[in-house]
Amino acid sequence: MTPAHKSEHLNAPFMQEAGLLVARIGLASLFLFSGGQKLVHLHGAAQWATSQGVPFAWLLMPLAGVFEVASGVMLVTGWHARQAAAALAAWIIVLGPLFHRFWEAPPQLWQIVIDDLFHHFVMFGGMIYVVVFGPGSWRLGRPKS
Based on the number of CB atoms within 10 Å of its own CB, is 24 exposed (0-12), middle (13-18) or buried (19 or more)? Predict the structure, then answer.
């Protein structure tokens, strides 16, 4: 084994854990931003949700904002990340088609709306990955070895 190869092998666990942390941050970023926007701009968020047919939007939007921020923090920290990812996966797969109705989009907006829907499918896949494989060892609440 050459020294360069040995060095790469020794850093593999570090790189894997760093990669998992970066992936969790990336997955959480949308929900941290979106949830924060819902909470900071509650009136506008409720108006938009109402225009999309959401009943009781004035009540549901603050709850949605808290859910998104809390789940995002859980993903970033790794604390109960599997549960947060499962909840967000359900959130994504249910709400994606409800809010990105490409079949109703005018031709000039069709590509944008369907792209948005497929972005939800990509996020769903990332969340399922966290559910199945976990957050890695760089997380809060990790058992002491």
Answer: buried
For residue 78, being part of any structural domain is answered with: yes
Residue 114 CB neighbours (<10 A): 15
Cα(128)–Cα(145) distance, rounded to whole angstroms?
27
Query: Is residue 143 one of the residues assigned to a domain?
Result: no
CB contact at 8 A, 129 and 81: no
User: Which DSSP symbol is given to 103?
Assistant: G
Per-residue pLDDT tens digits for 61-115: 999 999 999 999 999 999 999 999 999 999 999 999 888 888 999 999 999 989 9
Range of the domain at 107: 12-133
